[in-house]
Specification:
Blueprint: H1 2-6, E1 9-13, E2 17-23, H2 30-37, H3 52-64, E3 68-75, E4 78-86, E5 103-110, H4 120-133, E6 140-143, H5 150-158, E7 162-168, E8 173-180, H6 181-188
Parallel strand pairs: 5-6
Antiparallel strand pairs: 1-2, 2-3, 3-4, 4-5, 6-8, 7-8
Helix pairs in contact: 2-3
Amino acid sequence: MSTTTDSPFTRTDAELGTFAVRPLDPFADAELLHGWVTHPKASFWMMQEASLPDVEREYMRIAAHEHHDAFIGLHEGRPAFLMESYDPAELELVGLYEAQPGDVGMHFLVAPSDTPLHGFTRAVITTVMAALFADPATRRVVVEPDVRNTAVHALNEAVGFVPDGPVTKPEKEALLSFCTREQFEAATGLTTGESI
């Protein structure tokens, strides 16, 4: 995702303020990430038992990978979510679906909070999708959340994802879903590209 690796992506949500996405630093961000990925609310992230060195190693591996990127999402300048993008023709979904040019895989995780804001998670996924579609090469976003994660299925649908059906991955039964640029724009009312 060249747009966010060259410079931070920013968008303003009419109700919740400024969101930004910056490249993740596996060392500087590891302690923060460790608290997020091991939190009970992050059970579907599948890193509940990870140690701090485990988290450092995982994000060093991602940083070094040619087809996988990780980012820290900011809300009003403070770290608030984790975003990953990947090439599903090379990772995660190899052999499980027919990849198309312009497909980008995505994962996101909202940081735990003692004072949740109404609509925050939806604003986060909207920001994540807008950041992905800011790259003109992105034609379709692909996700594969756990079939049991009904909360994320509802969020995905709210930003334009259409389920394709279950796929069996080594670590889980996943619901493969797709969202084209046009579906995202129709669902959110946003226009992707430079104007966001």
